[in-house]
Amino acid sequence: MYRLRLLVSLPLSVVVMVLSMFPPLQFPGWQWLVAALSLPVVTWGAWPFHRAALRTARHGSTTMDTLVSLGVAASTLWSLWALFFGGAGLIGMTMQMSFLPSSTHGHADIYFEGACMIVVFLLIGRSIEARTRLAAGDALRSLLEMSAKEAVLLTNDEAGSRVERKVPTTQLQVGDVVLVRPGEKVPTDGVVIEGASAVDSSLMTGESVPVDVTVGDEVIGGVINTWGSLTLRATAVGEDTALAHIGQMLAAAQADKAQVQRLADRVSGVFVPAVLVLSALTFIGWMVAGGSTQAAMTAAVAVLVVACPCALGLATPTALLVGSSRAAQLGIVVRSAPVLESTRRVDTMIFDKTGTLTDGRMGVVDAHFDGASEPSLWAKAASVEVLSEHPVGTAIVAAAGQKNIPPVPVEAFTAFAGNGVSAMLGSERLVVGKPSWLIDMGVELSPETSAFQANYEAAGATVVMMVSVPADADVPAATSEQTSPDASSAPHMASATTPSGAPSPLALPSEDSALVLPQIELKVEGMTCASCVRRVEKKLAKLDGVSASVNLATESALVTLDREWDPQAIVDVVDAAGFHATFMGLRDPRPSAPAVAASSNSDAAPAWDPHSLSAAGARVCAAFAVKDAIKPDARQAIAQVRDLGITPVLLTGDNERAARAVASELGIDRVYAQVTPADKHNLVRDLHNAGATVAMVGDGVNDAAALAQADLGMAMGSGTDVAQNVADIVLTTSRVSAAPLAVRISKKTLRIIQENLFWAFGYNVAMLPLAVMGLLNPMIAAAAMSASSVCVVVNSLRLRRIQPDA
């Protein structure tokens, strides 16, 4: 709206100003041309201000647009009067450029240029504001554009076969099953029920590294699937998705008015009527003092023009818009504008530990080996733990995978709930478990292993050890009572073989889980580039009912079936493509899948009695320290919190030892461990009652009450919906350093608002006395007023330069 009016009004106003200010260019009748060129500007160009003034006048109120409209109308009407009745319309009349109002040659001056410049400068300011709003909305629009427009919906036909159908994402319902191929956007929030891949969420959260996902993991709509095919069950669609919620919060925050803006609105409500009265009194005063009608009208018009609080109206909203936009670009969504103001008072910031300062996932931080080569021991540990569902076992398998060491098939897998696991690798029995469990069975630890355990347990890590039992050890078999309790926690993958050693055919699941499909894991050697990956996937995709996700980094493939296939046939296809495939095992992705026999070989070793290790010559060959790893940016975040003058506090439900270890590593002095959700809420309340202004950073349902109780609640984007819904600020990135960044952006935004208000009020205070005394030409008043508005907008745009690592 403003841009077109500006494009038309600007050239017309330039001609008007040049003719009015430079006498050598004033040809006979120039003033009538100026009047004709001015009329479109002061009517159509200024119509947004006239319309707003009329609208508010009908309700008996005034705004800054009232001053603009009256200033333009008064300048124009005075100039028309001067043309027709004041002698300014005489042919041959000239007018000199003057910074002060004057009367020349006995005729009244015309101020068409002043009226035009008021409109042009205001249109420039409003256009910049509109561009600022547009730029501020880029983050919101980019969020909305991230969503996929179509989805591949999976259904079953009458024969029970899977059918793919493309549908608009608007037609998806909760519970629908969708297929996401490599390179496609995830169409909606969901949970992975089949396949494995890595998703690129850089546009969503700023994370530069794709995040691995597999069966049971939740994914957010809008992220990009990188290399593997995923089958998802929709958990939220349409306006209920995380992406839509973020957009709604951002829009609400940008539309909200902060307390300082409400104050500015109240000031404008008093200021505008006062200026109207002052303008009238100025005219009366000049007339009573014996001044000419021209002088009185000039002073009164100048008062109207110079008092226009345009800059005051732009001071707060422009800064809030730019600040919230920049925050959104950096992964910080502010739910309401008043939050920015409350942030500056924060003096205590409480951090939940798990999932906030730490990754929330177990990872191997160190390993100690005694005996065989390191790679072979990694392979042995991973081969035993790949069949375990315990987080510690998952961490060991993942660490081996990062070293490109794949697991190998094992037999006679046995899980001992709460203690450890065991399996046969060839003729060697391997046991991985808790040190206390192994010691109780008579296993002796070397001094080096004992020191390793003591050091890492003191640092809050969990230590597990791998024991090798010689092949000739006489270990009696376990009874059914010893093995049956663990059947429910048996693995979902096993190396199924026939007595001849070949992979056995894989049976499909029952009809009640037809869309939860079994998978074959392969090791694929010989791949050197992405084209090799595509070649393997294409070759396997040609088989009826087969889809595959190939990972070049780990040289592995996950093959999903929707009909019965002999695994050896799958291996042969990969070999025929020019690569070497090795069958690693079968996986049933169902979370509650029944146990799969680790081996159907009749010669496989039986389960065993763990209480006889003391007589079996067992020895510890490896030890692993596993802990919930601290996020890479956590130390930087805590340092930034201290630099802001805020005291960091660690709050966790974990034990005291683990909490102190994390706090010591991060430099946090105040620690509260083993607290319940109610304790977290009460602690925040107690700190608040003691006079502290508390910010709480958390991610889970157990943090929700504390987030709501805190003066400022910040929820990690990787957290639960409950936490995000009660928080004041949502950190869409998993980086905890976004918390101090949010505080820094808020403080910077408030400082910019204060500077803007200074410019706005300072301009009015300085110029009004000059206008009342008749020392200010209306044109110069218009230029000064608009320049003040432009300064406010440009000052606000400085917020776009805020950097996360500044």
Automatic annotation (TrEMBL):
The keyword Cell inner membrane does not apply. The chain crosses the membrane at residues 30-47, 67-90, 110-128, 267-289, 295-322, 756-773, 779-797. Residues 499-509 have a biased composition (Low complexity). Coiled coil: none annotated. GO terms for biological process: copper ion homeostasis. Residues 477-509 are annotated as: Disordered. Keywords: ATP-binding, Cell membrane, Membrane, Metal-binding, Nucleotide-binding, Translocase, Transmembrane, Transmembrane helix. The keyword Transcription regulation does not apply. One of its GO terms (cellular component) is plasma membrane. Residues 518-582 form the HMA domain. It is found in: Cell membrane. It comes from the Bacteria. PANTHER family: ATP7, ISOFORM B (PTHR43520), P-TYPE CU(+) TRANSPORTER (PTHR43520:SF8). NCBIfam families: ATPase-IB_hvy, ATPase_P-type. Belongs to the cation transport ATPase (P-type) (TC 3.A.3) family. Type IB subfamily. This is Cation-transporting P-type ATPase B. It comes from Schaalia canis.
